[in-house]
């Protein structure tokens, strides 16, 4: 039966549990270059599993689970250990709500005990560790890797070094830079060997040490499409997807780690609590890579073309929204004949694989290397990419990854493969994925426009889509208090953060997600003057008309056979989206084309095929504008002489 093993806990309004089987099941590990997932998905459920439970305050408790345990038993145990009511809470794992049966829960699956909306309130008491909890000690080690993949072999060695160092008194050191809690973990010689980022210390997370706290795990974070507490999985996903270490992502694993260095905030006013003793966290652990600079410190001309291409290929596949120059470490190469040569190391992949279409950020987009055509070897690598197999691998290795993120992986990998088939270079691909900023704000990217068209034609084809269901796509997970909290946070933030937020989101939803959410693909929206979003804010219809213009430009090149049928515009019909909230979820459902809540499997497949069909014309359009631009530039230059 269930046996609580650990905790020093204080307030499980949300609890994240990471399940770790005790039995010696066959290794699920398949690593870079070995993409077969055969065998991994059909493992029988283990009779005994050890689970780690993480509260929203960041503490972790371990417990043992056996075959007979179910969700309500887990909740009862949590209630006992944490001394809090668990009524009105749901156990979730990734996208799945576990009503009772836990057989779907495999090892290392993080479960989340989430308060249902009607039980969520700012007046929810904030609890301190109880006597009961203190009696229960965690028997797990100082650092434990969650997952049995072969990919983590090298990381196991680093973990052993770290544990030895901690036992001999060499403590981790907090990193000052960045917005989240980051720690250098060291070996016995005092050298940094790993970077550890606790999931509850991310920006906005409850224990963020840099003053950016205030949200619970699972709520929208710095970007609306990446939930608080979920960047660590993405760091690991980027490493796992970097087959053959092609782009040089440092080995990364998810760990449960215990130390007194970690930050814990007071849940009432958010101030740091001192002398908390050893606390346990779920964190990403990445190998520390010695380097000389980051890409913002140096001119980019010395960067090898192939390194830029490889990182670019990864960024496009994973739809990276945060590839700024600081996230590319640069190491000078030693040795004869290597003078002036450097190696690039991509880090910080916590904001990749968003849950919906976002504005990516690719620092390399305007570097000259990105305009050089791909080599035959690079094209071969891209041809061999298989997004469906990638998804299977991620489902096996990181079962907590949400389906919406996997769909983004499929969409962007498909885009990359088709674009390179058409002969586009990296810069052109990056440009097609990026939004433009005009006097009217941001405009949808060419990729988004193609998605809008695919989606529209899908609707017009009178697919067996239940219109009632379609209406529900406008439902929201974010409740009023979350929205106001978001606004409060924005008001209180130091100057650096609001500008980041403004770029990334407008009142919690960015403009394109608004577009997706309203489903406004039709030109008729010009007739309407105003519409409010879920938080009652007026939407910028100029934005939508820009989308329409782009959409029309695609029509001009005969992409779309419009039937003239009007899409349903629920918000324009007089209902504010604020009235359409669901009580269960936490992220706005971006009704877009790539959200699992939006399209059924059948629709998704049809959408993808339509998407691929439309891409050819979009690429041709892009090629001809690139050629026209070059001609104009040449004429401009010749006139100067
Ligand atoms: N694998 C690594 N090897 C060496 N140093 C690293 C590594 N990963 C991160 N760092 C260092 O730690 C710093 C903070 O890391 P990182 O940028 O990943 O944290 P963050 O809180 O997510 O930052 P940001 O707020 O800029 O997104 C980096 O600027 C870099 O100097």
TrEMBL record:
It holds the Pfam family PI3_PI4_kinase. Keywords: ATP-binding, Kinase, Nucleotide-binding, Transferase. GO terms for molecular function: 1-phosphatidylinositol 4-kinase activity; ATP binding. The lineage of its organism: Eukaryota, Viridiplantae, Streptophyta, Embryophyta, Tracheophyta. Residues 169-467 form the PI3K/PI4K catalytic domain. It comes from the Eukaryota. Signal peptide: none annotated. Residues 25-36 have a biased composition (Polar residues). It comes from Coffea arabica. This is 1-phosphatidylinositol 4-kinase. Belongs to the PI3/PI4-kinase family. Type II PI4K subfamily.
């Amino acid at each position: 039966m269930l046996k609580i093993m650990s905790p020093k806990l204080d307030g499980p309004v949300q609890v994240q549990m990471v399940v770790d089987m005790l039995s010696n099941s066959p290794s699920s590990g398949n690593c870079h270059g070995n993409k077969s997932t055969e065998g991994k998905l059909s493992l029988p459920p283990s009779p005994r599993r050890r689970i780690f439970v993480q509260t929203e305050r960041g503490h972790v408790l371990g417990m043992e689970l056996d075959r007979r345990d179910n969700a309500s038993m887990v909740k009862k145990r949590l209630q006992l250990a944490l001394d809090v009511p668990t009524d009105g809470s749901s156990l979730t794992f990734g996208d799945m709500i576990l009503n009772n049966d836990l057989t779907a829960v495999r090892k290392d699956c993080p479960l989340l005990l989430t308060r249902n909306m009607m039980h969520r309130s700012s007046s929810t008491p904030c609890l301190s560790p109880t006597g009961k909890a203190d009696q229960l000690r965690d028997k797990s080690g100082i650092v434990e890797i969650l997952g049995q993949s072969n990919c983590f072999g090298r990381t196991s060695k680093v973990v052993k070094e770290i544990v030895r160092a901690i036992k001999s008194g060499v403590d981790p050191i907090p990193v000052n830079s960045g917005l989240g809690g980051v720690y250098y973990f060291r070996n016995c010689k005092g050298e940094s060997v790993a970077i550890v980022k606790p999931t509850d210390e991310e920006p906005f997370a409850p224990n963020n040490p840099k003053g950016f706290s205030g949200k619970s795990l699972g709520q929208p974070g710095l970007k609306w499409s990446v939930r608080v507490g979920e960047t660590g999985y993405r760091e690991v996903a980027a490493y796992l997807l970097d087959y053959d270490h092609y782009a040089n992502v440092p080995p990364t694993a998810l760990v449960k780690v215990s130390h007194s260095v970690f930050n814990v905030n007071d849940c009432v006013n958010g101030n740091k609590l001192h002398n908390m003793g050893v606390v346990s966290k779920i964190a990403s652990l990445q190998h520390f890579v010695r380097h000389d600079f980051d890409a913002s410190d140096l001119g980019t001309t010395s960067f090898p073309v192939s390194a830029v291409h490889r990182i670019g290929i990864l960024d496009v596949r994973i739809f990276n929204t945060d590839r700024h120059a600081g996230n590319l470490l640069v190491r000078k190469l030693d040795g004869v004949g290597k003078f002036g040569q450097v190696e690039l190391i991509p880090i910080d992949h916590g904001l990749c694989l968003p849950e919906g279409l976002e504005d990516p950020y690719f620092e390399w987009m305007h570097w000259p290397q990105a305009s050089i055509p791909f080599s035959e070897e690079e094209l071969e690598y891209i041809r061999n990419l298989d997004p469906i197999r990638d998804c299977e691998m991620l489902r096996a290795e990181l079962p907590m990854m949400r389906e919406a993120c996997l769909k983004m992986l499929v969409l962007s990998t498909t885009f990359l493969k088709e674009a390179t088939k058409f002969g586009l270079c990296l810069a052109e691909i990056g440009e097609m994925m990026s939004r433009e900023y005009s006097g009217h704000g941001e405009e949808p990217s060419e990729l988004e426009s193609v998605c809008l068209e695919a989606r529209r034609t899908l609707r017009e084809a009178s697919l067996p889509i239940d219109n009632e269901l379609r209406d529900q796509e406008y439902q929201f997970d974010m409740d009023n208090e979350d929205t106001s909290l978001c606004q409060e946070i924005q008001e209180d933030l130091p100057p650096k953060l609001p500008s980041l937020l403004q770029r990334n989101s407008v009142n919690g939803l960015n403009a394109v997600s608004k577009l997706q959410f309203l489903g406004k693909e039709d030109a008729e929206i010009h007739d309407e003057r105003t519409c409010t979003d879920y938080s009652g804010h007026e939407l910028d219809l100029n934005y939508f008309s820009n989308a329409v213009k782009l959409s029309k430009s695609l029509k001009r090149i005969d992409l779309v056979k419009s039937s003239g049928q009007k899409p349903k515009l629920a918000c324009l019909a007089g209902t504010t989206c604020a009235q359409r909230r669901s009580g269960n979820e936490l992220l706005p459902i971006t009704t877009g084309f790539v959200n699992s809540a939006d399209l059924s499997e059948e629709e998704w497949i049809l959408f993808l095929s339509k998407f691929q069909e439309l891409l050819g014309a979009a690429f041709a359009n892009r090629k001809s504008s690139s050629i026209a631009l070059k001609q104009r530039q040449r004429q401009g230059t010749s006139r100067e002489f």
